[in-house]
Amino acid sequence: MKSCETLNGIGTRSSLLWTYTFQPTGGRSTKKNPKIIELSKTLNALPIFEERPDAEKFRNPNGVATKLSNFLPFDENYKGKGLDHNSKLDKELFQEFRTQKPRLHKIAQQIKLVVSNSDLKELIEAIEEDDESRDDSVLEGQILYRLHKVRERERKIVQRKKDQALAQSGKLICEACEFVFADFYGPLGVGFIECHHRVPLSQFKVEKRTALDDLALVCSNCHRMLHKKIDALSIEDLKMLVRYPR
User: Fold this and answer.
1) Side-chain half-sphere exposure of 110, counting CA atoms within 13 A
2) Of 61, 63, 97, 104, which residue is least crowded by CB atoms under 10 Å?
3) How many Cβ atoms are within 10 Å of 80's Cβ, its own excluded?
4) What global pTM score does this model have?
């Protein structure tokens, strides 16, 4: 993935719609199609929409059917015209997942699992927005992104990761740039470091518990850089950038 914006685009609206689009049994993209109605309910149940300009029309079956029709111009097998109200991101993602349908299906299934998990929905609702997830065009992609942030803030596993690092080296060292808050800030920085979840968003599993090896300890700056290219930049990649800046 090229950026967090592109990655967020594989979120709810795109992944669920395309999973439907690529299914040969999906049927016609009309507001009366039972699958379109079901998809509309799923989109509305996601824990990310604080503001709904028009609650009655918001992600309703007609709107979902229209969005599906926006993808038709990119489908070389479709003989009609489709709708013109599509975006560059729509085209990029349609073309990317044209040959990766199983991966896309897995992403969609994970998003659907969030809807059925009331405890997880509550945790995701509590996660704040940041600079990488404010764009309304990728809003629904925040489900996987916010889930990522939920996982890397689980207190017990984060504390275990810190305890492990302290037992091994006696310090909390950024795994990318080797910054130590306690060395720079003195007592104020003792015990402080952030935790990053290594698993790419596209491989996230709602039902999987976080393991110590899934986490990496990083400073705040490195953590922001990792989130900026969240599905393309690994800890190891960032470490190389720090050592050999371009």
Assistant:
1) 25
2) 63
3) 8
4) 0.74
